Amino acid sequence: MTKLILVRHGEPDYSFLNQANMGNSKPEWAFLSEQGVEQSRLAASDPNLLDADILLSSPYAKTLQTAAIISDEIKLPVQGEVGLHDWVSNKTYASYRAMTKDYKKAMYEFVNKKNYENQEYESLQNVQLRVLQVLRQYLLYQKVIAVTHGGVIFSLTQEKIPYGGAIELEYEEDPKNKGKILIKQKEDLY
């Protein structure tokens, strides 16, 4: 079994996006707030992260910044993984928060595992399948750290993890059903 430690990025700071008149159009460009940096430093100091084989990160600025802080502490380079990106509320990748009402409805449906009326939104199951495809590549590793987003972590665990929080899972290929990944939740780390 492969140990998987999912770390949620630290608290983001969207203020520079507002100052640049971007509003909510590019949340993936947000860096960490001062508190988010501290949350990431705390996460990086956890001894459970030591001896990992690989450190993966979503391509968003806030996750890459969190991963860089962890990388400094555990001396492991960061490898970007596009498939670990946040939940997509608009599959056209347009200004996906521009339509606040639709965004809020999609987020509600995502968190509450509702059926989607509007297939422009990525379902909880689609997020899970996307992330499992990424993780499948790392089945031969002993310990994998993945810095990602609350929605991604929720898709695998059904738990809401705080900024800078982490949860440890184990995963393996299902011996009875080749191609399927089995996930076992081990424990909340912090």
Q: What structural class is derived from the secondary structure elements?
A: alpha/beta
CATH topology: Rossmann fold
The N- and C-terminal alpha carbons lie at a distance of 22 Å
Give the total of domains: 1
Total strand count, please? 8
CATH class: Alpha Beta
What is the H/E order?
Answer: EEHEHEHEHHEHEE
> What is the mean pLDDT?
86
Give the uncertain stretches in residue-range form: none
Beta-strand residue percentage: 15-25%
Number of helices: 6
Shape summary: globular
State the fourth-level CATH superfamily: Phosphoglycerate mutase-like
**What strand order characterises the main sheet?**
5-4-6-1-7-8
The biggest sheet amounts to: 6 strands, mixed
In angstroms, what is the radius of gyration? 16 Å
- Helical content (DSSP H or I, runs of 4+): 25-40%
Task: Give structural notes.
The protein contains 6 helices and 8 strands; from the N terminus they run E-E-H-E-H-E-H-E-H-H-E-H-E-E. The longest helix has 14 residues, at 61-74. It has one domain (2-87, 122-188): Rossmann fold (3-Layer(aba) Sandwich). It has 190 residues and is of the alpha/beta class. The radius of gyration is 16 Å and the shape is globular. The chain has helices at residues 15-19, 34-44, 61-74, 100-111, 124-136, 150-157, and strands spanning 2-8, 12-13, 31-32, 54-57, 78-80, 143-148, 166-173, 181-188. Strand 4 (54-57), helix 3 (61-74) and strand 5 form a beta-alpha-beta unit.
